[in-house]
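Mods, move this if it's the wrong board.
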Amino acid sequence: MEEHPGKQWVRGPEQREDVLEALRALGDHDYQDQHWRSGEGSPDLTAAVHWLIDDTFIDQHGARALIPHLFVDQREADLVQTVVDALLRALDDLGPTAPDNAYLDHPEWTNVLNSAGAAYRALSSGKQSS
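Not the wrong board. Structure tokens:
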């Protein structure tokens, strides 16, 4: 991909920041234990799911459809798609109204944690400095 000095890599940098924040929280076990298990913290689990799935429609169109709006390339999109797929398996199994602890204790949650952490590290390492 050709880079242009002074221009954004993606067309939706503000929404990308929301996705990055969701990935950070979804990939951070200590944050979840400290905040989500107690029902505190921002973002909460609902906001993280909202930013990652509801606001992007990745569940309907796939992450690759968001190149270059949110993702620089297929590698980034595929990393995020892996997170969404794992998250949807837990959400589909438990439904939308289960308590946060039920999601955090779900067998699929380890895949959510690991894939979100990997996606966050990859996408945040490519952030442009101000």
